Amino acid sequence: MSKKWQIKVPGSTANLGPGFDSIGLGLSLYLTLDVTLQDEWEFMHIGDNVPSDTTVDTHLIYTIAQQVAQQYNTTLPPCKVEMTSELPLARGIGSSAAAIVGAIELANILGDLKLSQQDKLNISSQIEGHPDNATASVLGGLTISSMDEAGIVDTLHIQEMDAAFVVFIPNIELKTAASRGVLPEHLKRSYAVRASANANMLAASLIAKDYERIGRYMEADLFHEPFRANLIPAYKEIREAAKKAGAYGTALSGAGPTLISMIPLALSEQFTSSMQQQFPEHQVVVTTASPSGSTVTAY
Hints:
This protein is of the alpha+beta class. The protein has two domains: 4-159 and 291-298, Ribosomal Protein S5, domain 2, CATH 3.30.230.10; 164-287, Alpha-Beta Plaits (2-Layer Sandwich), CATH 3.30.70.890. The protein has ten helices and eleven strands. The strands form two sheets. Strands 1, 2, 3, 4, 5, 6 and 11 form a seven-stranded mixed sheet that branches. The protein is globular. The protein starts with a strand and ends with a strand. It comes from Solibacillus silvestris (strain StLB046) (Bacillus silvestris). GO terms for molecular function: ATP binding; homoserine kinase activity.
């Protein structure tokens, strides 16, 4: 058994508009865990975007890894985990899902669990409560998923997207629970039919890689964005400016407060520069779909 590993997990965006709780996209922004066996558990946080007020016993990665180990009736040997992240916390780009997937990978290697990809999809989605971010972090690329009542995930996976993605990250946090609190408990049938049709068209356009249509339906959500828009800094202004600058479409990234635009690859530099000038209070970052999902490298 090796004594050192590196676990690398892509962050993600969820929904892309009306693909509520079911569509995810892995982003080339990563959580990295450098793991070394030692006599006791230790977590070392390096750089920004990592929690500052946690102990070993309350650390999300530790608690999830122990939960998975208990599920498989095994004990994990202690280790040091050095954690770095390109994913700001509570901004809607999958920091918690990446941590959960990283914890499952940690339990898998330390406990020699021999988990399959399907196992990782099921466990991570069950913990998250829905399969959008989790499946994208496990597999990378684009995922369109459902999870049944038994917690079994079914996923269509598209590895490559011929587009770039620009995230607009404001300097505020927005917890998913707070963002879910503004959603209505019930929708009228006619409204739900229109919302479902838009979601179906988004999924079909993504599979067909019809980018003009993808952009149109990214901006046609009726499930959550109309209710969350007032929580999001410069929501309307960013959508309008991005469209004028050549974006296919712009949507909330997950529950927000980050927004994400899909743009032609050739526009990446020009678009990002223009948006950063127009929205200096946001961090504007260009990225692409992650070429792979979570990876483990032994040393």
